[in-house]
Write a structure and sequence with these properties.
20% strand; 11 helices; 42% helix
Length: 309
């Protein structure tokens, strides 16, 4: 058994995937054992072939490249990857990241030594070297209606400030999927990622279920570990992506907070985007989405096609 299985998803961004693999090899000490599971999530054939070529050139013995003929999204791609893994911990790492230090060794040792921890994440930086928000509060109706700052002001113990720079580890509610390390045992006990979700909020949902069902299922930010995230290399901003974000938001809220919370937020968003669409007509499709219920049947997941090669 390896200490950590590193699972990377490639989707039409092979150059970032290669740079990510290189940075992990360069920065990770020999104190821990690890393996790479790279899942190509139905990229264009040229991108996949380039990825395959570059990986072979690296001659990494502890790396498996798996080609999916169907884009299963973030959660589905990672669930595909763990079937080929053999680690005590799973590190779900976005391919558009590079390590700044011995990040994996730092988070591995933290999880080994912290009895109540099942999930953690290192500190995220952007490409300019600026500290980025590296944890979040659970998705709730209160958070969506009143905002995170209100929660942090009312109850700073339960809701630590997200914009603060931390020097020591801090207990949080959820960490980003760009670099999430979780006990394989805890992950498997709750069934892993919810593959109904195509994109967004998968990590929030996972952290919530682990915290509710695992006795030592707490989540931590470990700022001693540092990584750079180049954000959004596999998904470009568009109305379709904005719709997917809201579909996932309402699905996870309904799943974990109940039907009433879902209906209150859906009604509020319908009202809000009706008036926004008057000012900016491009928002009209979002208004219609909320009016119809923003169900999973509208997800991009159902619009994927199967690649022949």
């Amino acid at each position: 058994m390896k200490d950590i299985s590193i699972i990377l998803i490639n989707y039409n961004s092979s150059s970032f995937t290669i740079d990510c693999i290189k940075s992990i090899i360069e920065k990770t000490s020999n104190d821990i054992s690890y393996e790479f599971i790279v899942v190509d999530n139905a990229s264009e054939l040229d991108d996949y072939l380039l990825l395959d070529k570059k990986i072979k050139e690296l001659q990494v013995s502890n790396l498996k490249l798996i080609r999916s003929k169907y884009n299963t999204g973030f959660g589905g791609g990672n669930m595909h990857g763990i079937q080929f893994s053999n680690g005590k911990y799973y590190a779900f790492v976005n391919n558009d990241t590079i390590l700044q230090n011995d990040c994996l060794n730092i988070v591995f040792n933290f999880l080994e030594k912290t009895e109540d921890a099942s999930i953690c994440a290192p500190q995220q930086y952007n490409e300019q070297g600026e500290v980025q928000k590296s944890f979040d509060h659970f998705l709730s109706l209160r958070r969506e209606l009143f905002g995170r700052k209100v929660l942090e002001k009312i109850n700073p113990t339960k809701y630590p400030k997200r914009k603060k720079i931390y020097d020591a580890s801090v207990k949080v509610q959820s960490v980003p999927g760009s670099f999430l390390v979780v006990s394989a045992d805890a992950f498997e006990k709750v069934g892993g990622f919810d593959t109904n979700i195509f994109l967004y909020y998968e990590e929030t949902d996972l952290c919530y279920r682990i915290s509710k069902n695992i006795s030592n299922g707490h989540c931590y930010l470990v700022p001693q570990g540092r990584y750079t995230h180049f954000k959004g290399q596999s998904t470009q901003k568009s109305i379709a992506i904005k719709k997917e974000l809201k579909i996932s938001l309402l699905y996870v809220l309904r799943k974990n907070s109940g039907y009433l919370a879902y209906q209150v937020l859906r009604s509020w968003l319908t009202f809000k985007f009706f008036f926004k669409s008057i000012i900016k007509p491009k928002n009209f499709s979002l208004f219609i989405l909320f009016l119809k219920g923003a169900s999973l049947s509208e997800s991009l997941k159902l619009k994927q096609t199967i690649a022949r090669k």
